Amino acid sequence: MFEVKTEIKIIPDGYESTNRYFHKHVLNNYLELGVTLVGRWVNEDKTIITEVWGYLDEKHYRDFFELRKKTKHYQNSLPDKLANDKWIISKKDMIITPTGDYKMDLHIVSTNVLVQNEEDEVLLVRSLHRSDTLELPGGRLDKDEDMISGAVREVKEETGLDVAIKGLLYSSHNKTSGVVNFTFLGEVIGGTLQNNDEETTDVGFYAINSENISKLVTRKVSEDRILNALEKKAQKFDLYENNPYKIIESFK
């Protein structure tokens, strides 16, 4: 990994605006181009933001910013970028080299849930962080959260609906980012369908099939995830705990 530290000095009182812009536009634009966020910090008075990014190699870093300007995500962010730039005093990159190998082998676990209504339409959301596409509701697990609880929480947060998890339909592993994803089957048991202003701009049920999906779902990974889940090929899944060993929930 080729690591670069970015130091951004901002005008006092500009932190909330710049942080919101980062999570809405910058983060996922970088991730979709193969860059890894190692970490992001702000100083005590919130005037200096420090980011460490991991690129594939030096060429990836040198070519990245021209590549980014050509993306639809970047083009859509330009109106907000102009408003955000007024808060920035300076921005400086520094290439950094680790003094040793201190990393632990960790993976990130995320979940998605396939939910359908009586007409077999699929529940999809448009995330603030991935506004270019519709996708299944879902996200990363919180610390110490099991996959079933995380899947239920994400659907509630993003759509307002309460669901019961009925089975595991599909799993995948993103070797680039280390994200392991599990797509579950869910059934609506309550709640009210609605946007979450902090997470989604659009939620609803859509008629989806292999012929029209690319018109609604613009990211190939999301398209494959939905089509595989719609095949309803249930996978065995056990949620258990140790000391003593006990199965908490099981799907066949």
Any overview of this molecule?
- There is one protein chain.
- The chain is α+β, with helices and mostly antiparallel strands.
- The chain contains six helices and twelve strands.
- The chain folds into two domains: 2-96, Alpha-Beta Plaits (2-Layer Sandwich); 108-251, Nucleoside Triphosphate Pyrophosphohydrolase.
- The strands form four sheets. A four-stranded antiparallel β-sheet has the order 2-3-1-4. A four-stranded mixed β-sheet has the order 7-5-9-8, with helices on both faces. A two-stranded antiparallel sheet has the order 6-10.
- β11 (237-241) and β12 (246-251) form a beta hairpin.
- The radius of gyration is 20 Å and the shape is globular.
- The two termini are 40 Å apart.
- The relative contact order is 0.14.
Descriptive labels:
252 residues; 29% helix; four-stranded mixed beta sheet; 6 helices; Alpha-Beta Plaits; Nucleoside Triphosphate Pyrophosphohydrolase; four-stranded antiparallel beta sheet; 38% strand; alpha+beta; 2 domains
The strand count comes to 12
* CATH fold topology of the largest domain: Nucleoside Triphosphate Pyrophosphohydrolase
Under the CATH scheme, which architecture of the largest domain would be assigned? Answer: Alpha-Beta Complex
Give me the strand/helix succession. EHEEHHEEEEHEEEHHEE
Strand content: 35-45%
* Poorly predicted spans: none
Protein name: Nudix hydrolase domain-containing protein
GO molecular function: hydrolase activity
Cofactor: Mg(2+)
InterPro entries: NUDIX_hydrolase-like_dom_sf, NUDIX_hydrolase_CS, NUDIX_hydrolase_dom
